[in-house]
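Design job #97: recover the sequence.
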């Protein structure tokens, strides 16, 4: 059950969308002029935990698929066999074969450049075991080791699944950030994504909502608005 105040969340998302469209909104009693950017801003939730000791308490980690894709512009590269490379070509997804990977010759700089160029990777089942041998640890170090795409999987569906999956992982800090939408999305879809993301995080915590201190939502360049106290 979500403990987010739906009126507060609705107002916050309305303001985020208005600000990103260049309209003036009221922040802490002052008029703040918005600005339309020349890129699609991401809407993210920033969550501060409380009554939680990152050293002593159990670390948590979990992934959740949101109903609407928050970041459609994430770039994917298919590390594929011939069939998967052909399929990637058809749907306009960049791809590399074993031969292409061999050309990188385990060069750390080139592998780092490859990892930087894409947000995530997919790999065919017969390729995934060869990746450490072909590329070394570069993709793993960048936190971008490929997801498996089996021969029976639908490539577009797998890409959409990864684009709409969020991950909460407790490290040594008490603040978590997660993408819940973008400023070109329908307001209701951002609201639903935010509620589901908060509910999922609460389900991972020992004391659930009692471990959540504050939640803010903001666009990439916009001011934060508190929606949970």
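Job complete. Output follows.
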């Amino acid at each position: 059950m979500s403990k987010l105040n739906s009126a507060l969340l609705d107002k916050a998302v309305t303001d985020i969308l208005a600000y990103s469209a260049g309209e003036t909104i009221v922040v802490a009693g002052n008029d703040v002029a918005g600005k339309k950017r020349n890129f699609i801003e991401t809407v993210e939730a920033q969550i501060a935990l409380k009554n939680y000791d990152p050293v002593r308490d159990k670390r948590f980690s979990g992934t959740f698929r949101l109903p609407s894709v928050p970041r459609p512009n994430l770039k994917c590269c298919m590390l594929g066999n011939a069939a998967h490379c052909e399929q990637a070509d058809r749907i306009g997804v960049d791809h590399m074969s074993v031969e292409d990977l061999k050309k990188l010759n385990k060069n750390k700089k080139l592998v780092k450049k490859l990892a930087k160029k894409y947000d995530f990777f997919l790999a065919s089942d017969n390729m995934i075991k060869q990746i450490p041998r072909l590329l070394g640890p570069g993709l793993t170090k960048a936190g971008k080791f490929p997801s498996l795409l089996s021969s029976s999987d639908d490539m577009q569906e797998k890409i959409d699944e990864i684009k709409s999956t969020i991950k909460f992982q407790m490290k040594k800090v008490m603040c978590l950030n997660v993408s819940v939408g973008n400023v070109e999305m329908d307001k209701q879809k951002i609201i639903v994504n935010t509620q589901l993301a908060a509910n999922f995080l609460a389900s991972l915590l020992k004391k659930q909502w009692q471990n959540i201190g504050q939640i803010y939502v903001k666009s990439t360049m916009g001011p934060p608005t508190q929606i949970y106290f």
